[in-house]
Amino acid sequence: MKQFDSFRLDTAKECLWHNDTEIPLPPKPFAVLRYLVDHPGRLITHDELLDALWPETYVQPQVLRTYVLELRKVLGDDSAEPRFIQTMPKRGYCFIAPVAETHTGAAPQSAPSGAQSSVIVGRDDELGWLQARLASLSTGRRQIVLLTGEAGIGKTALLDAFCRQVASSPSLIVARGQGVEGFGATEDYYPVVEALRQLCASPDGDLACRVFARLAPGWLSALGREAEPLPPAAANSALHPAPDSFSHSGAFRRVPGDLCAALEELSTHKPLLFVLEDLHWADSATLDLVSALARRRAPARLMLLAACIRPDFALPLKSLIQDLLMRELCTEMILPPLTKSALRELLSRELQQDPPPSGLTSFVHQHSEGNPLFAIAILEHLITQRFLTRDPAAASGAPPGPWKAAGSFTEVEAGVPDGLAQMIEFEIERLTPHEQSLVEAGSLMGIAFPAWAVAAALEQDVPAAGEACEALARRLHFVRRAGQDELPDGSTSDFYVFVHSLYRQVLYQRQAASSRAQRHSRIAHRLGELFAGSQASVAREMALHFEAAGDWRSAAAALRMAAHHAQQRQAHAESIELLENALRLTEKLSGIERTAVARQIRDDVAHASGALAGEPHTRVC
Questions:
Q1: Can you tell me the mean pLDDT for 229-258?
Q2: Where do runs of H (alpha helix) occur along 307-429?
Q3: What angle do CA 164, 168, 170 make, to 5 degrees?
Q4: Which of 316, 378, 458, 506 holds its CA 20 to 30 A away from the CA of 526?
Q5: Cis peptide before 355 (omega within 30 of 0)
Q6: What CATH architecture is 415-511?
Q7: CB neighbours of 385 closer than 8 A, spacing ≥ 6?
Q8: CA–CA gap between residue 495 and residue 443 (Å, rounded)
């Protein structure tokens, strides 16, 4: 049960109490209030609320305003001077009242052991490591921890689980803020102010406000809690801010050093956990503050835990991480993909069925590569496509039947779930048109792609294309440099990989069919040029590109070449398979050409079949 002021939010019975009086609330207003109360002190954007409460339905944002107005009437709140729900113009809402957990009757005081395992799976080692870092604050040595990993790998879920574990401790102060795309370029210290606002709304809020009033009044002012300007004579006092804390008008301004000192002072009362999520969207002022907190030498029971995607679009963040790691001023935890066993546990939890349907774990693991966000999206996609189904309940009150697959998972075309495709498209659209062309060209080769192929597809100079690919790999989290190939002419070409096949699929499909075909053709011809004299060794790959380009004759010819190469290696069964594929392609040729090419291929098949059977065969000329 959540307690704020004289109100109690009974999440078990889904009702609101004012002192001892139950206040009826319709389901949706209650859901809005519950979400706000569950996330006190931070901005809840309109989109976040809509996604949380109407995940599968489009709802006009205006409906939120109606529900908030209804909640204000119930709570006796005033939008001009809010005590509970503060409106953040054009952004969303913030629940500003302190919230505490309360229990009634014989309700347990804490969750039973292992209860959190139902919320996050496969991260016990990481949670234990974070707990150890937090415990080390007793030595007075501050901890700067960077939690990094690819998009969707579960950084937020891990932060949520860790914060839940420590939230019940009365001997710890917790503040959490989040970077938001768009505000990093326009509003200094956005995630920091959000964390401080949550801190001031927590049970330790009064203590924090007193510390800020003495040491960082400019920051208190930024939270809408104005501090009276101090007389100049008080500026030299150790208990008051220095003169540079004032602007020319005499008002307080935010000084990073003041906040560092205030957080350190606060940590003398209780250890302080300061969490900054999505640091890759943070402004440069926030990054400077992180740098300052990491470099200060004074003892402090302070743990700064920041999560971000790495490598990232933001070069200043990458430089900061590299510098702090080099100087051993921070520790980085790179969050790995889920193991297959952890993914099985995740699927069992989502389906509420153990074990999950046979073959499901392997299929989802193969296509998600252990990324939990991708795994859940693929699972939902299978259900939406009705490949996973369950029988409805046989009787009222009876549970539905177990989930079953409609067929073999080897026959399923995974595709890219719509939600993931939109997320990936959004990331791609942030690139320049030239950068989009580079990664699109790379997708033509598969998961791994060499720089020379990008240059061939786009008709660019190889060194220039290589430098552009290298620059992208340093910036983008979904492209990585993987090594270097030596080409037949003695030159070398770097090659790169997409961190996930779903990125490659989206990039491939977003290209116009005509453009894609033209680029495939250029790559096939470039392969032939690079391996002139030994084309048979890459003939199968050339055939794939010619087929994707719709050049059926060239594709069939390349497959014949690959088949002859296989026969030279005594791989007669492989040769026959290649020739049968070539024969299939001839069906797309026209008239006389189809007849002539098919006859040559059938003769090749007969020759390979005879060799396989150990019988001599004379070619028909």
A1: 53
A2: 315-326, 340-351, 360-368, 372-384, 418-429
A3: 140
A4: 506
A5: yes
A6: Orthogonal Bundle (1.10)
A7: none
A8: 12
- What are the pLDDT digits (tens) for 68-127? 888 888 888 888 788 889 888 778 888 888 888 765 443 333 322 333 334 689 999 999
pLDDT in tens, 287-306: 999 999 999 988 999 999 99
The Cα 471–Cα 474 span in angstroms is 5
360 close to 407: Cβ distance less than 8 angstroms: no
Per-domain boundaries in the chain: 2-101, 123-334, 339-392, 415-511, 532-621
Taking Cα atoms as reference points, which of 301, 109, 97 lies closest to residue 203?
97
Long-range contacts of 456-463 (CB under 8 A, 24+ apart): 456/522, 456/523, 456/525, 456/526, 457/519, 457/520, 457/522, 457/523, 458/519, 459/522, 462/493
pLDDT at 57: 57
Return the closest-CA partner of residue 162 out of 109, 201, 125: 125
Token pair in block for residue 197: 């606002």
Do domains 2-101 and 415-511 share one topology? The answer is: yes
**Strands lying side by side in the sheet with 2-4:** 21-23, 15-18, 7-10, 2-4, 100-101
Distance, in Å, from the CA atom of 323 to the CA atom of 616, rounded to the nearest integer, reads 70
Which CATH architecture group holds 2-101? Answer: Orthogonal Bundle (1.10)
More confident residue, 141 or 55: 141
Give strand pairing partners of 306: 146, 276
Q: Are 310 and 147 in contact (CB under 8 A)?
A: no
User: How far apart (Å, rounded) are the C-alpha atoms in residues 158 and 160?
Assistant: 5
Q: What secondary structure does DSSP assign to 186-216, as a single string?
A: TSTTHHHHHHHHHHHTSTTHHHHHHHHHHH-
**Locus of tokens 């990093």:** 184
* Count of helix runs (H) and strand runs (E) in the chain: 24, 18
Query: Quick one: which of 596, 440, 574, 599 has its CA closest to 518?
Result: 440
Closest CA to 330 of 389, 290, 368: 290
Query: What pLDDT sits at residue 314?
Result: 54
pLDDT at 185: 58
The closest of 313, 306, 277 to 477, measured between CA atoms, is 313
- Name 20's Cβ contacts closer than 8 Å, sequence gap at least 6: none
User: What's the one-letter identity of residue 136?
Assistant: S
> Regarding the domain with residue range 123-334, which homologous superfamily does it belong to in the CATH classification?
P-loop containing nucleotide triphosphate hydrolases (3.40.50.300)
Residues 6+ apart with CB under 8 A from 82: 96
